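Each field is set out as follows.
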Amino acid sequence: MKNVFKPALLLMGALSMAQGAAAQGDAAAGEPLTAVCAACHGADGNSLAPIYPSLAGLGEKYLTKQLQDIKSGERAIPEMTGLLANMSDQDLANVAAFYDSKPAALTGAKEMTVRVNSGADVDALRLGEQLYRYGNPESGVAACTGCHSPTGQGNDPAGYPRLGGQHADYVVKQLESFRDGVRVNDGNEQTMRGVAKHLSNAEIQAVANYIAGLN
């Protein structure tokens, strides 16, 4: 077990260095700024469309950074092009505070199987739990619990987002984007890219499905 937890501790340290300082947000001031966001992310930050992330309870520090990165172009999201252009850093912090103040809904995991590289069909929930809690020491994948907590609540002061209950489709897309180098705003340490590059398609599907039911 010692070798399993070591990469998780390294992951925590790398991510903590990658997180920047965030402005203090005002949830009440952020609410009127979110009207344009509701179509994709829901009025309370709980998205009904699995391709769009739920933002409720995701973590104020993390949300602020993502909004800043989207505005600057460091994180490219075509659907959001120009939507944040007229918002100040304080506006972005206020929007983040508003969404973080909302309770997150649980999207739920599914009973399913995935086909691993050996060709065997395995229980996705069991594989997903194994990856989330212990990683895969053989391929160098760190456990998710080190940064995102055993219950998926994340660590807002450190800037680690809540994962529990997030749409599986969205988590799959993000892990694939990190793995393929499409999403690159994980800091100079490239922590998420370093983890995702060792995940197979089956592992990504399994851990994303497990995360959707985690609370």
About this structure: The longest strand covers residues 113-115. The longest helix spans residues 2-18. Confidence is low (pLDDT under 50) at residues 1-22.
